[in-house]
Specification:
Peroxisomal Thiolase, Chain A, domain 1; globular; 337 residues; alpha+beta; binds coenzyme A
Amino acid sequence: MQQDIGRGVAIIGCGSAAPDTVLDNQGLSHVVDTSDEWIASRTGIRQRRLAQGDRALTGISAQAGKAALEMAGVAAEDLDLIILATSTPDDLFGTASLIQAELGAIKAVGFDLTAACSGFLFALVTASQFIRTGAYRTVLVIGADVLSRWIDWNDRRTCVLFGDGAGAVVMQASDTSDRLLGFDLHSDGRQNSCLTLPFQGAERSLTPDIAVQQGTYQPIAMSGQEVYRFAVKRVPEVIEKALFRAGMSTDQVDWLLLHQANQRILDAVAQRLSIPSDRVISNMASYGNTSAASIPIALDEWVRQGHIKPGDVIAASGFGAGLTWGAAIFQWGQSDR
Ligand code: COA
């Protein structure tokens, strides 16, 4: 049972980029009271990449976007739409336009979309709606974050988890088949306090009667155990629902591609879905949790290393702050296996 479609959607190219600077767990143990043993055994993370500079998000996003366009054989001038999933824009008014300019995607409209670690998944589904209605033909979806800007580097409970990076895919209309087979998205703002990067202002009086709030964002605050429990319950559910919508079962899934938050979450979800570990994509040891970037970076690595082949069925799921979570079932590439 496929969802109603106008035109079909194909995902035809991917790319990724990460900053050069590497901070491994040993190095981090000089910043906070922690150890490689603690971090690796609880999370699977060994190192993370850290970005420098005020325009870092634009830079790595454009780099990932270029690589995806090259693989897809699509010229930047032929893009109709760029969606940037990020919670850490270089410019709060939007960073997609800066990327559009850097790529030379002169006729593309661009906008940012914020859904934390679910951002890439939500952007992929958003892009597919523009394609299915026939509004746009060729779309670049980027997931990118520089969370190092907003981490409390004195808080060992959170600073060990995150890293910076960017990943991208090119999606295109297809008149012959539809490769986005099913999806399901959710939010629950009642659990917002589990994981936040909140604005905090102080009152400034403008006139005796009128005041405004001026301030900035506060570092990431997280209740680790609540987020863990949320992920291992909701992620298998949402994948099963997306599979149901695709008319498929878990044994038809070639690759489980989860947001790379924590190896223990990946293992627990795979076990609940009875998906063997050799079909679970994991690269968080090298990058940590890169938020909206983690799914497309992992996809890009598995495609370029030749593990994922055209026609392979991928069950992807993003989850995180909001709280938000979602899943998409899609087939990689243009041709059948
Ligand atoms: N190094 C060493 N010790 C640490 C530490 C660190 N980096 N972080 C926490 N600890 C300590 C705590 O202080 C605590 O010590 P205490 O018992 O003496 O107070 C102990 O380790 C256990 O802390 P706790 O927070 O209960 O650990 P945990 O087993 O829940 O593991 C997480 C913490 C963050 C790894 C785990 O909760 C998790 O993975 N949650 C999901 C987080 C996530 O993925 N977030 C992003 C979602 S998009």
